[in-house]
């Protein structure tokens, strides 16, 4: 099937380009990490004070603009929103707390495994578990209600914000903070990172590549489409890492990672659970935001705020391991997501369609 | 021909696919599904085809109508 071939190629490209970005300066196993890079960007804007992770990441800007340009060119660009905005903000916030407990978004989880970081295995099992719980809610009729068409101008705002960030970054503006050491100081050249982002964003806009969707669709519909992209990322990144000599199999001394299996599991379980209710992983939210989906923009703003709080409140893990505050936050996160799940179940969704009668589902 | 119509407009994936799945469990011979975005169209098309249905697509005033029938 031609469709499937395209998403496999898409996955291979994402995996290879991620390895390439590491070769050219990004932190190891962090060619692209949407959660980490949103966090770095928030830091670069001075919204948190963690000095090691402050840098406006051009990959994020590229993904948004790539998806914008592709959707615009293909006439897919459609401004819409209004589907439980504040709930989405909270879910985005919590997904970020979970991701920073583990130290990576679902995409980086795959890249970490492809770099030989076996701690990611706990993350993947947790991620799948979180998705499994989320699906229970979907099957019971969970919905954040419908979206509505909005004025086109609303949809341009987020791409424009990204364009402004890009101008500030390229001009080396003194408004921004640039980490002098730590992961935030490690980065590929701006132009290369931007280019990779553009390619990934444009391509994934076409294929709808999504890490959460992969496992979700397999469980829900026995559909391998999205998961095949996921697997392709792993294979290409694995080969790339071996070729570039950064593959390092084991649990200890993995870059920007810790070895606490339980909390790696729980962190990604929370990220998976929250993402299923949002309808997509953090990368997918960036793509949708570029396409004019304001619900996704709100989710990203939630993630960005979550990232700032994660560092201001010392919730984010470090290579030394998780923090007590972080553990408490993850537990609260589970409770909040479960409550959101419960209170958004449409009880009257017992299906009654009658001949020629339209049923609002 | 009169058909059962599922209105999944405005729903974000995977909800339109879930609604389609539930409708097809009740109406095994087929249903019409109305959606308003390309992602939902593609996802439902793939799901219906994988489940052994034929899918025809019509566009009407910006809405996309998927006509799903048993092969």
UniProtKB/TrEMBL annotation, chain A:
Keywords: Membrane, Transmembrane, Transmembrane helix. The chain crosses the membrane at residues 7-25, 55-73, 85-104, 116-135, 156-178, 184-204, 224-249, 261-281, 293-313, 325-345. Pfam families: Sulf_transp. It comes from the Bacteria. NCBIfam families: seleno_YedE. This is Conserved domain protein.
From TrEMBL, chain B:
CDD domains: SirA_like_N (cd03421). Residues 6-30 form the UPF0033 domain. SUPFAM superfamilies: SirA-like. InterPro entries: TusA-like, TusA-like_sf. Transmembrane segments: none annotated. Pfam families: TusA. Belongs to the sulfur carrier protein TusA family. This is SirA-like. It comes from Thermobrachium celere DSM 8682.
């Amino acid at each position: 099937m031609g469709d499937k071939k395209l998403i496999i190629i898409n996955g291979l490209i994402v995996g290879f380009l991620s390895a390439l970005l590491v070769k050219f300066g990004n932190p190891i196993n962090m060619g692209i990490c949407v959660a980490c890079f949103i966090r770095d960007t928030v830091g670069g804007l001075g919204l948190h004070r963690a000095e090691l992770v402050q840098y406006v990441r051009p990959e994020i800007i590229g993904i948004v603009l790539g998806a914008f340009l592709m959707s615009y060119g293909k006439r897919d660009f459609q401004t819409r929103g209004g589907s439980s905005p504040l709930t989405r903000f909270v879910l985005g916030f919590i997904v970020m707390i979970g991701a920073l407990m583990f130290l990576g978004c679902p995409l980086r989880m795959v890249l970490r495994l492809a770099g030989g970081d076996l701690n990611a295995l706990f993350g993947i099992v947790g991620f799948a578990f979180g998705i499994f719980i989320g699906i229970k809610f979907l099957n019971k009729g969970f919905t954040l209600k419908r979206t509505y068409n909005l004025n086109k101008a609303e949809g341009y705002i987020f791409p424009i914000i990204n364009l402004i960030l890009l101008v500030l970054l390229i001009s080396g503006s003194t408004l921004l903070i640039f980490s002098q050491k730590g992961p935030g100081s490690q980065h590929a050249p701006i132009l290369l990172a931007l280019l990779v982002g553009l390619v990934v964003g444009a391509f994934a806009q076409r294929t709808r590549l999504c890490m959460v969707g992969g496992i979700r669709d397999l469980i829900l519909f026995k559909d391998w489409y999205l998961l095949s992209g996921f697997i392709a990322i792993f294979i290409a990144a694995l080969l790339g890492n071996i070729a570039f000599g950064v593959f390092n199999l084991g649990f200890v001394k993995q870059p920007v990672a810790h070895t606490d299996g339980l909390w790696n599991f729980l962190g990604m379980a929370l990220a998976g659970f929250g993402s299923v209710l949002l309808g997509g992983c953090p990368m997918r939210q960036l793509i949708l935001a570029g396409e004019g989906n304001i619900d996704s923009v709100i989710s990203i703003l939630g993630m960005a705020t979550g990232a700032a709080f994660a560092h201001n409140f010392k919730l984010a893990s470090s290579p030394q391991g998780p923090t007590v505050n972080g553990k408490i936050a993850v537990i609260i996160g589970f409770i909040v997501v479960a409550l959101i799940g419960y209170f958004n179940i449409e009880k009257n969704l017992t299906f009654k369609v009658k001949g020629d009668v339209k049923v609002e589902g | 021909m009169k058909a059962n119509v599922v209105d999944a407009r405005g729903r974000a994936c995977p909800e339109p696919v879930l609604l389609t799945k539930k409708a097809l469990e009740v109406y095994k011979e087929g249903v019409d599904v109305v959606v308003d975005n390309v992602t939902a169209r593609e996802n439902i098309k793939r799901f219906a085809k994988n489940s052994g249905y034929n899918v025809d697509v019509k566009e009407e005033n910006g809405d996309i109508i998927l006509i799903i029938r048993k092969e």
